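RECORD CONTENTS
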Amino acid sequence: MVAQSCRASVVVSRVCPDCRRRSERIACPMIDPDIKAQLSSYRQSIDNIDAALVHILAERFRCTKEVGVLKAKYKLPPADPAREEYQISRLRQLAEDAHLDPDFAEKFLNFIIKEVIRHHEQIAADHAEQSAAAR
């Protein structure tokens, strides 16, 4: 089915309760109900996947926090370039296998790695501070 456009389209404006930014979208009352239902179904799936991603990332960061604690305890550097290179290569291959843009996957992992290193640096600083205070 092809959705018809109409001149009665209205701009729906709303304010995000979290960031207070205004977002606008075009609402067309003539969109076919089947298309609306299909969009709604896809959007619900996307919302569920986004929620799963957040929980998976939270679990990943719980694990990397423990890695950071071990690194701090044994005075290991926060970054491990060899491990990072391996992970990027591995993720690029997984992305290709999943038909996802490997460059996007690499950017995503680099963002996560940068954040993990920042956390590890903070853990190391906190550990050093606690060790100095205990002396």
Remarks:
- The chain has a mean pLDDT of 88.
